Amino acid sequence: MIKGYWCTKDITERFRCTSRTIYRWMQKPQHPFPKPRMLAAGSQNLWAIDDVEAWETQAANHQTNNSQAA
Asked: Which domains does the chain have, with CATH numbers?
């Protein structure tokens, strides 16, 4: 069951970045940011909190592994 949803503003505040940065992260070939679960033209995009938190955890693990390899 999904915890809930975050809108673009929630995501940008959480990561202290712009919406453009979020969309660039979504285009990355490796470990892309999750796509919104709900898309609507002229309306808010909504991301599942579970998807974003899972991505965040994977990003932290990836960064830790890269730091240890250096």
From this structure: 5-69 (1.10.1660)
- At 25 the pLDDT is 96
With 0-12 / 13-18 / 19 or more C-beta atoms within 10 angstroms meaning exposed / middle / buried, residue 43 is exposed
Type of residue found at 8: T
Backbone angles phi, psi at 48, to 5 degrees: -70, 130
Answer yes or no: is pLDDT of 65 > 80.
no
| β-pair partners for 26 | none
DSSP H or E run through 29 = none
Given a contact cutoff of 8 angstroms between Cβ atoms, the answer to whether 34 and 51 are in contact is yes
Report residue 5 as tokens.
């949803």
> Whole-angstrom Cα distance, residue 19 to residue 68?
31
Strand-pairing partners, residue 7, are 46
pTM given for the model: 0.80
